[in-house]
Amino acid sequence: MVKVRLSVIIPFYNVEKYIAECLDSVYAQDIPESEYEVICVNDCSPDNSREIVLEYQKKHANLILIEHETNKMLGAGRNTGLRAAQGDYVWFIDSDDYIEKNVFGKLLEKMEKQDLEILSFNAQRVTDEYVYSDYFFFFPTNTEVITGIDFLKIDFPFWKKPVTAWSKIYSRNFLIENKVNYPEGVFFEDEVTNLKTLFICLRFQFITDIIYFYRSNVTSIMNSNVFGAKKLIHRIIQFNSSIVFLDEMKNRDIELTSTLIKYFCNLLAKQRKTILFFSINDKRFFYKGIENIKLDTLLKYDNKRRYSFLLYPKLTFYSSNLIFPTLNQLRKIKRKIFNPNEEY
User: Fold this and answer.
1) What pLDDT score does 220 carry?
2) CA 143, 144, 148, 154 torsion: positive or negative?
3) Which terminus has fewer CB within 10 Å in the chain: N or C?
4) Contact (CB, 8 A) for 192 and 238
5) Residue 139 burial (CB count, 10 A)
6) CA 274, CA 123: separation in Å to the nearest integer?
7) CB–CB of 115/109 below 8 Å?
8) pLDDT under 50: residue ranges of the chain
9) CA-to-CA distance for 214 and 195, rounded, in angstroms?
10) pLDDT at 234
11) Residue 68 burial (CB count, 10 A)
């Protein structure tokens, strides 16, 4: 029996336009299909995505389809795939993205020879029209085998570093032994988990090759305004959880954790602008959603009272209600100018 070297995990939902290209890239590789498995997790997709995957399954014996009974979102899909995985290494790939051809051999050789826990690489942003607009991130230097903390400490903006789930190949034993999993039923599910994996990783390496192609999908849930209030609740929960985790890790490296805490605090403070554009019902939904968030750790770092919009919702609620009609009207005017064919 041939040993499975790599498990490619692809959760999918409402991606019938893209999943074939994703799978084509996964099968345009330089190792035998018997040496890797492709685990597709159907998160109750309402479109034709499942049927497309089933057609690929007829052609490829190494494709495994797992069905969720209810929609659990991306984090749950990754957890489901990881539990089923048999490979020595794991790669989480988003179903509306794709990867470079003929890279499995090189990446697995590096993982095996260097006994790596995580191997990371660069990514390119691409539109539906295949315009390579810019790098999703571009870290400029190959590294030796270092710890994840040493990688985070390299003098380069944190937001430009590859800290997403899909920008890495992981040792499956590393994930299992450290009980790594993703929050389920939420947006921004990989914020804290990605930080944790880097803080506990002892054998990390980065290569500058552009391996992953991230699609700027304007129709995706993450780019949709339909779930605006819900997404903001989840974003704040994840930013706050990151701050709590980093505060707990201070004894590991106080300078690094302080820098990252400041980064996440700044991101969180900027979220108050979003609330101004919410309708009254969205604001009520938002404040109901955050009322049980524990903010004790965050408040330790709130020297300028930037987070009062979380603690004193009445002031923000009523003041933003006064200016919402004006802001909303200005936004409609802007949309009419830049999207004249859009229906209102």
Assistant:
1) 45
2) negative
3) N
4) yes
5) 22
6) 28
7) no
8) 218-226, 343-344
9) 20
10) 87
11) 17
Which of 170, 104, 159 has its CA nearest to residue 136?
Answer: 159
The per-residue b/e assignment along 241-273, b for 16 or more CB within 10 angstroms, e otherwise, is bbbbbbbebeeebeebbeebbebbbebbbeebe
- In the block, residue with structure tokens 């985790």: 245
- Nearest to 181, CA basis, from 193, 172, 171: 193
* DSSP assignments along 102-152, one per residue: S-HHHHHHHHHHHT-SEEEEEEEEE-TT----SEEE-------SB-HHHHH
Average model confidence (pLDDT) across the chain: 85
pLDDT attached to residue 311: 67
Of 238, 242, 232, 312, residue with least CA distance to 278: 232
What residue has token string 């009272």?
Answer: 305
For the record, the structure tokens of 181 come out as 């999993």
Do the Cβ atoms of 101 and 25 come closer than 8 Å? yes
Please give the pLDDT value at position 226: 43
- Name the burial class of residue 312, with classes exposed (0-12), middle (13-18) and buried (19+) by CB atoms within 10 angstroms of its CB: exposed
Instruction: Give the global pTM.
Output: 0.84
For 97, the token pair is: 């993205």
The CA distance from 251 to 20, in Å, is 46
